[in-house]
Amino acid sequence: MASPFHSSFPLSPPSSCHGGGVLQFATRAATSPFASYCRAPAARDGGDDHDHDAGILQALAFNGNGSVHGVLDPGVEEEKEAGDGGGGGRRGTRIRARDCAKRIMGLPVEERVKVLDLLQRDDGALTVSDYNDILSALAMAGDHDSAVALFRALRPNGVTPDAQSYATAVQCLCRKGAPDEAKEALDEMVARGFRPTVATFSAVVGCLCKRGRVTRAMEVFDTMRAVGCEPTIRTYNSLIGGLCYVGRLEEALDLLNKLKESPKQTPDIYTFTIVLDGFCKVGRTDEATPIFHDAVRNGLSPTIFTYNALLNGHCKEGNPLKAYSLLMEMCGNAACPPDRISFSIVLQALLRAGETSAAWQAYKRMERAGFEADGRALDTLARGLCRQCAANVAALADAREVFGKLVASGHEPVSYTYCLMAQALARGGEVDAAVSLLGEMARRGYALRKRAYTDVVRALCERGRARDALRVLALVIARDFVPGRNAFDALLGELARQGRWPDAMAVYAAAVKRGVLVSLKRHSKEALLVQEQTETRESSVQPCN
């Protein structure tokens, strides 16, 4: 008995010789929130609809009615219906209807109830229109394999597919990534006298082009025009994208130029972007730039994808400053400001090229735009700014800012970054911070670079802090590192200047024990000379009696 919830309106528009309704199906399948439902029924509140669906599922699980012909991976049953008296029977592969029902439980209520009611009927009572509704429901639920399997089982079981059946199957084959099978189904559809819609043709062209089957896509394109179906700009974009994908850039550019002169179709910004991106990916960004300007002259507004393709092209060809200039141009363009990808492309390229100043400016712009740089970029930028401190102490504040954000982001700086930061702090006069950073490195088990702790020891000795310098040297020795000659010389010189000869002898002995050649005699002579000069100055300023 028909369910009281059975609707007299079909799930999709009636079938026609032109396959109408397939375009609506494709649009709904792409936008439906239930399009990816295949795993488990969505949670719903209790109600009549839910009770009705549950009742149907329970009934389907225990009775023998409502099974539909088809081939599905799960729930497949080989059955043979035969009668003793000449009634014969149909032998074929059958699927349990309850398995179909479970897959479509995520569809909207009206469509769900419609299909579940169809599944309760006996096989012989289902028409091709009913099967089309089931096919569409499976496609909308994202179960493209089941929809294709059911379509293939229609004709062997006495049901002749119509234009809508073919169109749904073609769309499902395209979405499951089977371009050759999709083309075969399309060819069969045309051979049987059906006229596919532009959406069906375009789907096959796009699917073939994504797999690099451009020659076969051209065949579909020619068939499309032969049956009087005018390609849309989306069809042309798919074809141009396929040509670029296989490296046939000149043909893609020729097709773009023909479209510019065509009275029927006008290229959009995506058409220009596809060709432009194709040239950029093969290192021909200089040829892509005129395409960009051509699009602007045609009154089109470049999208973020257009800009990012150019930025990526400039950076890959080793021209990060050109990319930086374009990025700054984008920052002044309110219609299409740079996104996080734009900043990341340019920032990383500038850092690889050693353009630290430009990278710092790009980072500040990125920060003002509300985007965060990744830890790797921050690490590299911090190292670059630390190196700049050797020539420009003013860069120390920038280096400290980036290093602080790097640590705060949870990204652990590498040992080299720690060492460069300690060197920069020592050279910039922030000796206590440098000593603290070396201690942090030791606690984390990082290797201490020779230049880093040598610069810290020198900075301490220059300030007369021999005791602290001695502690740093002891920290290095405790880590089983052998301090360099410059570190020992700096400490010996300061101890000699202060007249702390026992400490100087101990440091000298530690150096000799570790095979480091230093000259205590030289430091003693320098210390004596300094002492004599000091005594001379003091005697010259004493008043005469």
From TrEMBL:
- Residue ranges of the region described as Disordered: 70-94
NCBIfam families attached to this UniProt entry: PPR
Q: Which PROSITE patterns match?
A: PPR
Domain PROP1-like PPR: start-end pairs: 346-509
* tRNA processing in keyword set: no
Cite the repeat ranges for PPR: 127-161, 162-196, 197-231, 232-262, 268-302, 303-337, 339-373, 414-448, 449-483
Which key words are in the record? Answer: Repeat, Transit peptide
What is the protein's name according to its record? PROP1-like PPR domain-containing protein
